[in-house]
Design goal:
By secondary structure, the chain is an alpha+beta fold. The chain is 18% helix and 45% strand. The chain has one domain (3-91).
Amino acid sequence: MSKANDVLAIITEIQQKSVSGAMAGTVYRLDSKSYILTKPLKLKVSGGSFVTFPKGTDIANKPGGTFAGKEQIVNSKENLTQIEKNSKITSK
């Protein structure tokens, strides 16, 4: 594998931002605004429970968070990685 392919292999749609201060930590978000799931996914939602979203579900990345229909998806690295791997981008 060439160096160019190695670099392309690690580029993802997930942005990571460090936050300093009293609530220090890391915030994750997706680059694109809209995704469509290509297969069913079980994701953690804001209430702490897990919901299985069917194939074809629209995932919207809005300023208030990441949403699938009316459910707000927890922006954890695990959830966002699953969305990235199992969906296609519909709008940048």
